[in-house]
Amino acid sequence: VQLQASGGGLVQAGGSLRLSCAASGRAFSSLPAGWFRQVPGKEREFVAAISWSSSTTDYADSVKGRFTISRDNAKNTMYLQMNILKPEDTAVYSCAAKIGRITTRLDEYDYWGQGTLVTVSS
Question: Is 27 helix (H, G, I), strand (E, B) or coil?
C-alpha cells in the first residue's frame, strides 16, 4: 500500500482545511488508517484514526470537536476535515495504514505516506 497526503497550506486561525490521503492498492479499503502530525524538533503525535468500515473513529483530545476523519473506500481515499484551526495545529500531517485493529499507537502502523505541511497563522 502506498499513501500520499495532500491538501496542506497556509490558513488563518479559525479557518478550515481538508486533507486527503490517496492510497494505491486494493488492500487499503480493508485496513484501519490514521492521521498523525509532527512539528520539527518534536515527536510525531497521533491525530485521528478510522476503522476500515468507518464504524469506529478515535481522536486526540487536542482535536476533538474540531477535526473529522472520514474515508471513501470506493475512491481509496481518506480525509481529515480540520475546522477552527489554531496556531498550535501547525505541523506536517502524514497518513498511515495498518494491518489489524484500529489503534492510536504510531509504532503499530505499517504503511506511511509523505506528509503535507499545514501552517496556521495567528
Answer: helix
Contact 95, 113 (CB under 8 A): yes
Cβ contacts of residue 85 below 8 Å, gap of 6+? 11, 12, 13, 14, 15, 16, 17, 66, 118, 120
Looking at the chain, the number of H-run helices and the number of E-run strands are: 0, 11
Give residue 25's pLDDT.
79
C-alpha triplet 75, 22, 70: angle, nearest 5°: 70
Mean pLDDT value of segment 10-36: 95
Q: Is 87 exposed, middle or buried (0-12, 13-18, 19+ CB in 10 A)?
A: exposed
The backbone region for 100, taken as left when phi is positive above 0, alpha when psi lies in -120 to 50, beta otherwise, is left
How much is the average pLDDT of 85-113?
97
What is the average pLDDT across 30-43? Answer: 96
Cα 80 to Cα 36, 49, 87, distances in angstroms: 10, 10, 17
